[in-house]
Amino acid sequence: MRLMLIGNPNVGKTTLFNSLTGANAHVGNWSGVTVDKLVGSIKKTNDELIDLPGTYSVTPSSEDEGVVTYALLNESYDGLLNIVDATHLKRNLHLTIQLLEANVPMLVAMNMMDALHRKGLNLNLEKLEKMLGVNGVLISARKNEGIDEVIHQLPALTLKKPFRLYYGITIETAISQILSLLSETPQHLDARWIAIQALEGNEGIYQSLSLANEVPIRAIVEETERKIINEKVALSLKGAIFNKRREFIHQLYRE
Ligand code: GDP
Ligand code: MG
Ligand code: K
Question: pTM of the prediction?
Answer without folding.
Answer: 0.94
